[in-house]
Amino acid sequence: MPAHHNELAGDRALLSRTSTAERVADVLRSRIAEGFFPPGVRLSEGDVGGVLGISRNTLRESFRLLTHERLLEHRLNRGVFVRVLSVDDVLDIYRVRKLIECGVVNQLAEAGPPFGLDALAATVADGQAATREWRWRDLATANIHFHREVVALARSPRTDEVMSSVLAELRLALHVMDSPRRLHEPYLARNREILRTLRSGDAARAETMLREYLEDSRKQIVTAYAQRLGSGGDRDAQGARGA
Amino acid sequence: MPAHHNELAGDRALLSRTSTAERVADVLRSRIAEGFFPPGVRLSEGDVGGVLGISRNTLRESFRLLTHERLLEHRLNRGVFVRVLSVDDVLDIYRVRKLIECGVVNQLAEAGPPFGLDALAATVADGQAATREWRWRDLATANIHFHREVVALARSPRTDEVMSSVLAELRLALHVMDSPRRLHEPYLARNREILRTLRSGDAARAETMLREYLEDSRKQIVTAYAQRLGSGGDRDAQGARGA
DNA sequence: GCATATTTGTCCGTATGTATA
DNA sequence: CTATACATACGGACAAATATG
């Protein structure tokens, strides 16, 4: 599908129906999530495009995608940067989380008890396995998946998308401090409790538990993040990387 | 700021800090909202780019922006089309509306009565003025603004953005049938009632009213839309327009 | 079913304005 | 203030897919 048959990240058009820009965006999204591109660094079109071996136009498409997901920040005539969340951003993210997550569970309370909890249970199991084997980064991932699956219970594609976007954004903040164990281990038990309560059919009580959960998590993360951003703050908004 | 000093949609760099692609996207967004580009039509790169006098690459970037707002649909090697919502889409939009709008009012019930209701009151006044003067299209706009302002009470930028996006999408469906009077006039009184109830400080009751409102609106629009889509359906996916 | 014309997808080269050293 | 680096936007090119006759 690409005109000049670029091989590095380009071909196999007939197999994958995604555009090259989307594939490049996938790569960059992973790099950001795993911290290879930490918040604050600039992604130069020349460098990144050179490494991946794609044209600037295509790369700009990818940047557009990630900018819309709020993972990158676009400053006019300055270029794109990995987003650095402010404390206000984190607060707003938790506002949205409370609104959506609690709202979904609240709707379940009205609908009735036959929920499909298998996917939710799987994330709890993943978290327990990760904890047993001291894989704290995986524990963080499982914890995030738990909340994604809570929202998935509403079976609303648009709600799922909003939640995915917000959680990916939150990961930017989590990555700035990452001590995954202290941040996530205490909440695993509460996830299990919420799951158990949902299994019993008492969605109203689960909603209360989730509300308290989010309140506690918000307090912990905001204080830790403000501290980290204040002391280790002012990460170089320059410092190109890539080549 | 543009290289070759394009005048039509190009210059005045020092004043407007937005890129040309965003400005072009603004124009197209308006054209879609006002129905000049109705759902289903294809936007040809050649035609639209020719009329607006911008290069193909820049136009494609605008298309990308609107595609991510779900106003355009991108079919591989076919071009971009103004989105045609399915009935499932409309159902999901109302799912999101109920979740967010009711959730926001529910949070107000916990927070306490000093809400800032001026902007909300203004939309009701706009609707009444539009009704008095038989400007049904403006009534529809005012009605949509009412719900946007309800959500704005939460003072959450991300929630605002989600709501704006969802309402812009809903407008695609409303435009397919447009008999704005029958669709919007009955709800003006209910808007006023909800505003009055919020003024009295009883957010809990306002939430119930809003919930019933959305339920009724959903039923009406879904049935009307399914009918319209079934009979008048299969709008030409061809029929270029522009020049 | 086939040949042609149109349109899209991708990439390159270049000119110009903007921000920073 | 000058110089450098880079983002922005343009036009052109060609391959591939689609539409048209």
Describe this structure in words.
- 2 copies of one chain form a homodimer.
- By secondary structure, chain A is mainly α.
- Chain A has helices at residues 20-33, 45-52, 56-68, 87-111, 118-132, 136-152, 157-177, 180-199, 203-231; strands at residues 42-43, 72-75, 79-82.
- In chain A, a hairpin with a 3-residue loop joins strand 2 (72-75) and strand 3.
- In chain A, helix 4 packs antiparallel against helix 9 (203-231).
- Chain A starts with 19 loop residues before the first helix and ends in a 12-residue tail after the last helix.
- Chain A binds chain B through residues 17, 19, 57, 60-61, 64-65, 68, 76, 92-93, 95-96, 98-100, 102-104, 106-107, 154, 156-159, 162, 166, and chain B through 17-19, 57, 61, 64-65, 68, 76, 92-93, 95-96, 98-100, 102-104, 106-107, 154, 156-159, 162, 166.
- Chain B binds a DNA duplex (21 and 21 nucleotides) through residues 1-6, 10, 13, 19-21, 44-46, 54-58, 60, 76-79, 238.
Offer a concise description of the structure:
The structure is a homodimer of 243-residue chains. Chain A is mainly α and 243 residues long.
Topology:
The structure is a homodimer of 243-residue chains.
Chain A: H1 20-33, E1 42-43, H2 45-52, H3 56-68, E2 72-75, E3 79-82, H4 87-111, H5 118-132, H6 136-152, H7 157-177, H8 180-199, H9 203-231
Antiparallel strand pairs in A: 1-3, 2-3
Chain B binds a DNA duplex (21 and 21 nucleotides) through helix 3.
Helix tally of chain A equals 9
Largest interface: A-B, 28 and 28 residues
Q: What would you report as the Rg of chain A, rounded to the nearest angstrom?
A: 20 Å
- Major sheet strand order of chain A: 1-3-2
Outline the low-pLDDT stretches of chain A. 1-17, 232-243
Could you tell me the number of beta strands of chain A?
Answer: 3
Element string of chain A (H = helix, E = strand): HEHHEEHHHHHH
